[in-house]
Amino acid sequence: MTGSPDSRRMRIWQPGDAVGRRQFMELGALALDHGGELPGVKLAYETWGVLNAARSNAILIEHALTGDSHVVGAVEVGHPTPGWWEGLIGPGLPIDTDRYFVVAANVLGGCQGSTGPSSGHPDGARWGSRFPAITIRDQVRAEAALTDGLGISRWALVMGGSMGGMRALEWAVDYPERVARAGIFATCAAATADQLAWAYPQLLAIRSDPDFHGGDYYDHERWPDAGLGLARRIAHTTYRSAADLDERFGRTPRGLREGEVTPQRGYAVESYLDHHADKLCARFDPNSYLVLTEAMNSHDVGRGRGGAIAALARVTAHTAVVAVSSDRLYLPEQSRAISDSIPRAWLETIDSPAGHDGFLIDTAKVGEVTSRLLAHSA
Question: How does residue 378 score in pLDDT terms, banded at 50, 70 and 90?
């Protein structure tokens, strides 16, 4: 990827760009966990269905690291990808939009309409390297302000996976009176040393790219795409299981028959990782990747709350905690630890060979769990 102006346009939403289904809410200044405040915060969001008169049928969907507000729907003007959780939301589907009002926001720190590093600084330039460190709790605090602006006092369900699961968990812990049900998919109560270790070379890859310019690359001809692509290759390896990669690719060389030895050309699994790197470089801002990864690194639901067990005991929502059997990034035992500590929680397992991405791939199982969760009286 060259980072040419044309290739960059879909990576960061800018005023004047087509909005698609997106709406925007100005939230004002936001106090941050690390001190100070972020001025002029705005969140981009999408909705499906109709909010009822009692405002009791609202569901919040939380996206993962490189997702955005476009949970379902085709590629459209202003959106770089189709919906990332298709088959889950719509008339007659597990989250039935004839019954529920569904909201999904682009996370604080993102690059698809919400305030992030590519947004305008009060001085008229972009935030870039000046964008402050944020936490998962900061992101949820911004979503709580959005919730107030929508006139919703309590969510019928908050659900998400991976980084989205972190936010759903924080919602249930920090705002127990505002969450009737919670769906916590493929995530953890606190980032482990192993997860921090996987993140570290990704952060270094972007910051070591000669085109990074300390985070202020927006006005340069080239962006740090080599670094972002390398970060994505590392991350995507953790999103799939070893067995899945072996089954799909084995030792097949690039573009040649099984068994031919051509080490100079590399292997099919490398082409697969290259493909996902190129896709991300075509639609995502490297600075947002850094900010959001570091927010995930800082995630610890027990911080300042007497530890994770004490924090999770505050949850009053009916909660489904969902693990993926082959997940090697957020291990099934981490999901069990969460479910064991929440009073009204149960553990489900998606039996999938796909690895961490199983929560995005096996939408039938996700839908089954969601339907059972919504059947619980609030």
Answer: low
